[in-house]
Every structure is written in C-alpha cells, then in structure tokens.
Amino acid sequence: MALTGIEIFKYLPKTNCAECGIATCLAFAMNVAAAKTGIDKCPYISDQIKETLVESSAPPVRQILFGTGSQEVKLGGESVLFRHERRFENQTAIGLLLTTGAACQVNDDKVASFKELRYERAGHKLAADFFFVENDNNSSKDFLNLLMKVKDIAALAVCAYSLQDAKQAMTVVGQCKPLLCGALEEDLEGYIALAKQYGCPLAIVALSLPQARAMTQKALSLGFKDLVFSVGTGGSVAAGLEFSVETRNAAVKDKDKLLGFPTLLYPCAFNKDLPGQFLNASILMAKYASALVMSEFKGQFLYPLLTARLNIFTDPQRPLTMPQSIYTIGKADENSPVVLSCNFALTYFIVSAEIENSMVPAHFIIKDTEGLSVLTAWAAGKFSADSIAAYVKKSGIADKVTHRKLIIPGYVSIESAALEEELPGWQVIVGPQDAAALPAFLKQWSC
Q: In whole angstroms, what is the distance from residue 178 CA to residue 322 CA?
C-alpha cells in the first residue's frame, strides 16, 4: 500500500535544507506521496531507506515498461479502482496484430494503417502504441523477417510459441526491449532467463487466478518481477473482463501482490468482426485492461477508441484544455471574423462545430483560462478585459486580418466597453450567449 506523506516524513532528516527543491521536509514528503517527485531527490537518506520507501510506496499494480526512447510504452502503475479517487496513471496501450501466416501484402497494409492513422484532439496526439508480432505458422524465417520490418517503427510485443523461436527473435529485437509473450507454466523458467538476459518484461499466459498466482509466485522466487498477465486468447470477452476486474480488485483492495500486474487482452481473438472487436475493446479499456491487441485498424473504429481512451485517462482534477492559439476554421482570410473564447476543451469543440455549421470561415482565437469555462473564468478574473486585451495584442491576430472587429461571448458582454478601451482601434462585438445561435449570427457578418 502506498505510504502517506506523514509516514514518509518519519524517514526524512527533518532539516528543511531545501536541497530537494522543496522548502520543507514535510512538503517534500507530501509531494512524494502524491507522486509529484521522487524520494531519490533527498540527498540525505540512505540507499537502504530509499529502497524501503520505494518498495512501500509502489502502486498496487506494478508499472511495466517496454520499448525504448520515444516508442516506450508504460503499462500498469495503478493504485485506484475509479479515476475520481485520484487518477489513472498509464493509458491502455493499443496494439496491432501482425502474423507470419498472413500474406506479406496484408501485413504491409496493416503497417501502413498503423503509420497513417494518427490524430490530434484537444492538443493531444492520438495513435496506437505497439505491434503484436505472432509466429502463428511456426516459421522462424518469416518471424525474423517480420520483426526486422517493424522493429524501428514502434514498440514490440513478441509472441513466438516456442522458447527456441523466442531466443532467435530476441537476437534480432532484444535491444528494442520488447514485451516477450507466450510464456506457459511448463517453460516459465526458460522464458524468465531469456527476459533477464535482455532486460525485457515477460507476459505469462494465465487462464485463471490460481494459475496466475502460482506462476507469479514462481517468477518472484526466481527474482523476476516485470510480469504482465496475458489473458488467454482462446477465451471470451466476458472471461477477459472478469479476469481484469478481479486482478485489479485483488491488487488494490486486498493488497494481493501476486496479482498486482498489468493485463494484456485480445479483442482480436474475442471477436472476428471489426465493429464488435472495437466495441469490446472499449469495454475492456474502461475496466482495467492495460493493453489490447486488435486484428486491424480502420479509422472509423480506431478514432472513437482513441478518443474514449483520452477521456478515461485524463486527470479528472485537471480540465481538458486546448492550447492557447489562433485556430483557422475553413478558408479564413484577412476579411474573416475573429471569434474569441476560452480554452476549456468542451467549449472549444462546441463553438468550433457551430462556426463550421455556419459555413463562414473564421479565425477562432482561444485564450488560456486554465481550463475554465467562459463564465467561470470571468468570475475568477481570468477572462477580464485587461487579460483578454493583453493576449489579443501578442497573439498576432492583427497581422492576419485587415479589419479590427472582435466577437466576444455574450456571457462577458459586461467587459465590452473596458475591452475597447484596452484595445484602441478595435470594435468589440458582443456575440450570442448560446453557441447554437452562432451560425445565424455569423451569416450576418460583414467587415
């Protein structure tokens, strides 16, 4: 169980030296407990105490890393059952299945879709995370060729189905630190030795909770902790969901360290039809799946899943925001209207959609209000005339348009006179309070 700030404070020197970058030892302890800084920042506690604190403060679900550099994927690291209790730490990784038994063109098309289907929403980049490469036809040559083809594109999960093939595969991609998959109970020791050799995590095939506990116990006795539960590909989505929920509950509520590991599930095996596959993936994602493997990607299915992931894994204590910037909607030019709003993401999407519905190209200028909505930001002093004017002046919008007309939200009409004083030469136009009225309002625009 994670330690509280007071419990961590007991181990600290209590000198308030501030060498950690925080003013007092108590404040430092509270930051460590909240995972805002690491215990290693304190230079005056012994390595033994550091190790003790790291172990005691570790989340109930162990964090597992695979891949390297910008391709690194993080699984697990979770400490709660519901995001409102704190937050979920590492988003569900989404993988694409590549098999040696498939035609080369099929795999090439999948790799192309993996590269192509990338999106941006509310300032966040949305994309899949890894390839799950499976040697389903037991061809070592095909397996190695396929791994060589994709090893530099994204993180890898390597499923060989035999220890000998796994060893050959690791000679090719071991330096990429893949997730080594396919370890059965009978050959667990060999897989653990291989994973240790290359410093890789290992996914063990667990068909039940008792089997998962037994295999984990054996791995821990061999000094290996970087495990992932690979939930049987031959099962059902219901079985996978049950396993994922039970292991999270056991780890978080019951403090069962033998079940405190991430889960890898296979919607590609649970459903052959793509719509059902992605529907089940969304269910598994909402209930603790750490990684999912899909048979193929289509934009109309992948984008909703990526958006759902973004919504689930954002910090509930921090509103989803848009970067402060000028957004061009349609083919806006120097005569197009300038519409102002806040950077609360929901406001942005609603207002931008209504601007698009109007068919009037516009410059949509978003001011940073720390994620607050228009009226809330105004009440907090973050959407006042002086702050709006300061941003308009530095935004560069004056260089993009020949007119000097600024449309502000109707809810802050009270700021219009003061804003005209702060922006000499600009005419401030009060827009509608309701975004739904924007299309009719903008159609009457003239510069």
A: 34
Tokens representing residue 432 in the block: 């509608």
How far, in Å, are 6, 87, 103, 109, 380 from residue 319 at the CA level?
29, 13, 45, 37, 15
| 3-state secondary structure (DSSP) of residue 339 | strand
Please state the φ and ψ torsions of residue 56, each to the nearest 5 degrees.
-70, -30
DSSP secondary structure string, 79-143? --SSGGGS---SPPEEEEEEETTS-HHHHHHHHHHHHH--EEETTEEE---EEEEE-TT--HHHH
**pLDDT, tens digit, 9 for 90 and up, residues 110-169:** 999 999 999 988 778 999 999 999 998 888 899 999 999 999 999 999 998 889 999 999
Q: What is the pLDDT of residues 337-373, one digit of tens each?
A: 999 999 999 899 999 999 999 999 999 999 999 999 9
Backbone angles phi, psi at 205, to 5 degrees: -80, 110
Q: Which amino acid is at 391?
A: Y
117 and 29 inside one domain = no
Q: What is the pLDDT of residues 432-445, one digit of tens each?
A: 999 999 999 999 88
- pLDDT confidence bin for 180, thresholds 50/70/90: very high
CA 319 to chain centre: 15
Domain that holds residue 19: 5-57
Whether residue 396 is contained in a domain is answered as yes
- Residue 13 CA neighbour count, 13 Å, CB half: 14
Residue 218 backbone zone (phi > 0: left; psi -120 to 50: alpha; other: beta): alpha
- Of 419, 412, 407, 410, the closest CA to residue 362 belongs to 407
Q: Is the dihedral of CA 167, 169, 171, 175 positive or negative?
A: negative
Whole-number pLDDT of residue 313: 92
Structural domain count of the chain: 3
State CA 338 to chain mean position distance. Answer: 33
Same domain, 79 and 171: yes
- Per-residue pLDDT at 130: 98
CATH number of the structural domain spanning residue 19: 1.10.15.40
Q: What is the DSSP letter of 206?
A: E
